[in-house]
Amino acid sequence: MQHVEMLSAALGLLGAILLATRSRYAGLAFVAWFVSNVGWLIFGARHDHWLFFVQQIGFTATSVLGIWNWLVRPTLHPAETEAAREQRARAVIDFILDLDFVSLTRGSYVLHTTAPVSYAALQGIYLAGEEEGQALERMRNGGQP
User: Which residues cross the membrane (predicted)?
Assistant: First the structure.
């Protein structure tokens, strides 16, 4: 039983380290926690620690949810292509410009709080945000910005 306890503790710490480092292996933290949870369930049941056992059932559920969100679901839904992302961004920008135009035509009081923005300006903002987002993603994966 001591081996189960030691393995569960070690896998719990490993999971915390994997997620804390935000490396490309961070999703595996939930697998480590899941195995750790199973070990703690065995330990809790054998030693009659029933409140601890119930807590581990909750942790096991969050581990399964993490495995689904970090490892399974991304493989089921392929990444959005650059063209699709740009098309979606253009649609959002057009929608927002239409809303701004409607608010500008409703009354002069709006002109004091709103300014017309060109499509080119919004596109520049979007591209700058994309570059910043990609740099943050590279940093998160352990690379240079």
Answer: 50-71
Is residue 30 within 8 A of residue 66, CB to CB? The reply is yes
Q: Domain range holding 34?
A: 2-76
pTM score of the predicted model = 0.57
- Residue after which a domain boundary falls, among 32, 51, 76: 76
Structure tokens at 24: 């490309």
The two structure tokens encoding residue 125:
């903002």
Task: Tell me the pLDDT band of 143, cut-offs 50, 70 and 90.
Answer: low
Alpha carbon distance 30, 100 (integer Å): 44
Between CA 14 and CA 73 the distance in angstroms is 23
Please, what's the largest Cα pairwise distance for the chain? 77
- Secondary structure letter of residue 39 according to DSSP: H
At which of 58, 76, 94 does a domain end?
A: 76
